[in-house]
Write a structure and sequence with these properties.
The complex is a heterodimer of chains A (237) and B (124). Chain A contains 12 helices and no strands. Chain A has 237 residues and is mainly alpha-helical. In chain A, helix 7 packs antiparallel against helix 8, helix 7 packs across helix 12 and helix 10 packs across helix 11. In chain B, helix 1 packs across helix 2. The chains are: A mainly alpha (237), B mainly alpha (124). The interface between A and B is large, with 117 and 79 residues.
Chain lengths: 237, 124
């Protein structure tokens, strides 16, 4: 693909367009409370046909909106604040709680990576799918660190979010899980912010526990993934 | 306004420190070191939670827009989706429910009866 030079006006227009579409979708979601109006999903669904029709190559779009991508790093640092807030509340059982989440992260990364390598045989995709249970910015940044395909990660994250958020509560009832802590932690670990938003509507206690799980899982995954990846890769070399 | 500048400067400082650590010992991405430093500074009382609260929550609420440039990259993957779309969705569903079940069963067994004060609600 040929990358043309990017003019400042193109860059400004594409960045503004992205912001306007995203903000409109976010506003629509807030007004309607309709969970499927996920602003990230809506923006992508609108932008892709637009780029295809106006024949703007992705590489140009990416360069033009570099400013937004650069904000990803400070955005991740900002997650330190909710991490601090949640740490205040898990002091008593923190060892057990962290141990369960560590095992959960190892399980999901191993399963996702191995299944993808067995069925699709592409390491970049396997890395992206292994990171689908963490919150999006952390998922993207670790995918890039490990040379995975960071355009697949956000989609995998959105699908995992809806799957666990919408079907998770019924599945937990089927498993006879009764406590708010177990329901909240598991949905936060598996379905991050989207799951957390969905269950918070019906039960704020579960929503709060899911926030704890999603932020701690993001940190744990960042530590575990780079250690686990070389070990798993040996089996699929 | 003062609080906004305070928050932006604190986050920038943490990110710069994160970059330095990432540069000298590598390991985690710089932004994750930054996040841990930020959390640590809050925990130690060196950064005042009350001053960062509003700006920080605003940033988290709107951070989704930063993911779009990466996500639109899927435009180059129509072939992959055509060939493996269903397999990918199958893997995501299966592993999501495996994790959900694993954490829920263990937490129900070991954490449910020792329930503590409920944590605060916040989304990020």
């Amino acid at each position: 693909m040929q990358i043309q030079s990017i003019s400042l006006s193109d860059s400004l227009i594409l960045t503004l367009l992205t912001l306007v579409i995203y903000q409109s979708a976010a506003w629509a979601q807030q007004k309607s409370k309709f969970i499927w109006l996920n602003p990230l999903l809506v923006t992508i669904i609108v932008l892709i046909p637009f780029l295809l029709l106006s024949k703007i190559p992705y590489a140009n779009y990416r360069l033009s909106t570099h400013f937004l991508n650069a904000l990803l790093e400070p955005a991740i640092v900002a997650l330190g604040y909710p991490l601090y807030l949640q740490l205040q509340h898990i002091k008593r059982n923190w060892k057990l709680l962290v141990a369960i989440l560590v095992l959960g992260v190892i399980l999901v990364v191993t399963l996702s990576f191995s299944l993808t390598m067995l069925l699709i045989h592409q390491k970049e995709i396997a890395i992206a799918l292994s990171l689908k249970s963490v919150t999006t910015p952390v998922g993207i940044i670790i995918t890039e660190q490990l040379q995975g395909d960071s355009s697949i990660t956000p989609f995998a994250i959105i699908i995992a979010g809806f799957a666990g958020g919408l079907l998770g509560p019924s599945w937990l009832r089927f498993l006879k899980i009764r406590s708010d802590i177990a329901a909240g932690l598991s949905i936060g670990a598996a379905s991050h912010v989207i799951g957390s938003m969905i269950i918070s509507k019906d039960n704020p206690y579960q929503g709060a526990y899911s926030s704890v799980a999603l932020i701690i899982c993001a940190v744990l995954t960042a530590f575990i993934m780079p250690l686990l990846m070389p070990i798993l890769s040996v089996f699929f070399a | 306004m003062k609080d906004i500048i305070y928050t932006v400067l604190t986050i920038t400082l943490c990110l710069v420190l994160g970059k330095l650590i990432n540069f000298s010992v590598s390991g985690l991405p710089a932004s994750l070191y930054g996040m841990i430093i930020y959390c640590l500074l809050l925990q130690l009382g060196l950064v005042k939670p009350i001053k960062v609260h509003k700006t920080n929550q605003w940033a988290i609420k709107h951070m989704g827009v930063c993911f779009i440039p990466a996500a639109v990259g899927v435009i180059n993957h129509f072939e992959l989706i055509q060939n493996h779309g269903l397999t990918i969705i199958g893997i995501i569903f299966f592993t999501t429910f495996a994790l959900l079940t694993f954490v829920a069963v263990l937490a129900e067994k070991y954490l449910a009866n020792k329930s503590e004060s409920s944590p605060s609600t916040s989304n990020c």
